[in-house]
From TrEMBL:
One cellular-component annotation, GO: lysosome
InterPro entries: FUC_metazoa-typ (IPR016286), GH (IPR017853), Glyco_hydro_29 (IPR000933), Glyco_hydro_29_N (IPR057739)
Enzyme Commission number(s) of this protein: 3.2.1.51
Top-level enzyme category: hydrolase
Species the sequence originates in: Microbacterium azadirachtae
Family: Belongs to the glycosyl hydrolase 29 family.
Protein name per Swiss-Prot or TrEMBL: alpha-L-fucosidase
Keywords carried by this UniProt record: Glycosidase, Hydrolase, Signal
Pfam families to which the protein is assigned, alphabetical: Alpha_L_fucos
Single GO MF annotation: alpha-L-fucosidase activity
Annotated PANTHER family: ALPHA-L-FUCOSIDASE, ALPHA-L-FUCOSIDASE-RELATED
Protein's job: Alpha-L-fucosidase is responsible for hydrolyzing the alpha-1,6-linked fucose joined to the reducing-end N-acetylglucosamine of the carbohydrate moieties of glycoproteins.
């Protein structure tokens, strides 16, 4: 063991009510919204085929020119109640909102910056309105905060001189002030999602990452913090130099997921995040962004995949510059929501099915047990069928000691006959061939009963 002062603070996963609720939620909505939604990937007629929220950087826009966008942040189509209803209908149980992205623009009227919504025509506390709207729909709220800041003069990528160190220390004080301000203004916040922490300057300040996590947890007891914030004494990130997870859950799976048979991730909490477009988090108004747009079936497959391995999925939406949701994203939310309305029991309050091996044709999930150490899931296990074999027949390899009692499709409750050959096989019902994943509830009993 390498002795560390700022390494992992606990070897075990949290089991307090806030963390259990977050774990049981499984499905969250990510919202990336800021000034970058106005140019939406195009600057002075040139479309940059890269994430819209990076445009200031990728189109080499000066601080002044970028800051001038604030005058166009007019909220003409901004209806946070509509965002929140869309998220609830989709089946999301929490939202993570960008309070400040890399460009430094703050969605709340921060006392520590003049580059905020207070300098836009409406002057409104946009963040506060968003958070209130989601809570009114029953969703928990988490705050995304980029430590990387292209606007602040004291930001440094690396510390190469005393001047850099002095400037960056000032920068970290600024970030601390802003984060404590957020905690004070929005005390119902359930978690903080840190980003922009990969530079040498932050890695050389593992102490700050440790201290801000502790400070926020003092101000908001139970607050949940992602691993991406953290660096240890030696600059190791996410996992400390001894391999222990820092923060409350791992947050490195971004636009990718662990291999479906890889249960090694299920020993800790984790959350993946995914874009609906090609690779843009902010609204990108271009054929490029549309080219890779995901379908509802793909998103449901990612959700099933994630839950089967004990993770949460944060599905990103990028509202447009006027604050309205793009119709294509609303349509996707509604399609996912229609699926969740029928099949949500396989996602919410669910997790891996211990003892049930990855079946190839989809994913198994099981209701979260009070006792997370169970070795085999009995009772009901959900089979989320995402890849129907051409035979239309599923092979179900039961864990030793269990027998199948009944198979029911969640869509209509109809019992689906199955045969027991060398393994259990199930002929899929016609209702399975809809283009969306089918969920079968497998009712098991101890073998021999
Ligand atoms: C970051 C941001 O730069 C991006 O704009 C967005 O907010 C996203 C959620 O987070 O992007 C990353 C961060 C980490 C990885 C990739 C993109 N990574 O670990 O592969």
């Amino acid at each position: 063991m390498i002795p560390l002062t700022y390494g992992a603070t606990s070897a075990d996963r949290r089991q307090d009510p806030t963390m259990r609720a977050f774990r049981a939620d499984r499905f969250g909505q990510f919202v990336h919204w800021g000034l970058y939604a106005i140019p939406a990937g195009t600057w002075q007629g040139r479309t940059i085929e890269f994430a819209a929220e990076f445009l200031m950087h990728s189109a080499h826009v000066s601080r002044e020119d970028w800051a001038a966008l604030a005058a166009d942040f007019t909220l003409d189509g901004f209806d946070p109640a509509e965002w929140a209803r869309t998220a609830r209908r989709m089946g999301a149980r929490y939202v993570t909102v960008t309070t400040k992205h890399h460009d430094g623009f703050c969605l709340w009227p921060s006392a520590y910056s003049d580059f905020t919504v207070a300098a836009t025509p409406s002057g409104r506390d946009v963040l506060g309105e968003i958070l209130d709207a989601y809570r009114a729909e029953g969703l928990a709220t988490h705050l995304y905060y980029s430590v990387l800041d292209w606007h602040h003069p004291d930001w440094r990528y690396a510390i190469e001189s005393d001047d850099d160190r002095i400037a960056f220390d000032r920068y970290l004080d600024f970030a601390t002030n802003q984060l404590l301000e957020l905690a004070e203004r929005y005390p119902q916040t359930r978690g903080f999602w840190f980003d922009g922490t990969w530079d040498e300057s932050v890695k050389a300040n593992g102490r700050w990452t440790h201290e801000i996590e502790q400070l926020l947890k003092e101000r908001i007891p139970g607050a949940i913090v992602n691993s991406r914030l953290r660096a240890d004494d030696r600059g190791a990130r996410h996992f400390d130099s001894n391999g222990a997870l820092m923060g409350d859950y791992e947050s490195g799976y971004e636009r990718r997921l662990p291999a479906p048979w890889d249960r090694s991730v299920s020993v800790y909490d984790w959350e993946a995040c995914a874009t609906l477009t090609q690779a843009s988090w902010g609204f990108h108004d271009s054929a490029w962004a549309e080219r890779g747009r995901k379908t509802p079936a793909q998103m449901v497959e990612q959700l099933a995949h994630t839950v089967s391995l004990g993770g949460n999925l944060l599905l990103n939406f990028g509202p447009r510059g006027d604050g309205s949701l793009a119709p294509v994203e609303t349509a996707l939310a509604d399609a996912v929501g229609a699926w969740m309305a029928v099949n949500g029991a396989a996602v919410h309050d669910s997790g891996p099915a211990p003892g049930w091996d990855y079946p190839g044709w989809g994913f198994y999930t099981a209701p979260l047990q009070a006792d997370a150490s169970a070795e085999v899931s009995d009772g009901v296990v959900h089979a989320i069928v995402t890849r129907i074999p051409v035979s239309g027949i599923l092979t179900i390899a039961l864990p030793p000691g269990l027998a199948l009692r009944a198979v029911r499709a969640l869509v209509d409750g109809a019992e689906t006959p199955f045969t027991v050959l060398d393994a259990h096989t199930v002929q899929l019902p016609a209702s399975a061939f809809t283009g969306m994943p089918t969920v079968l509830a497998l009712e098991t009993v101890p073998a021999g009963q």
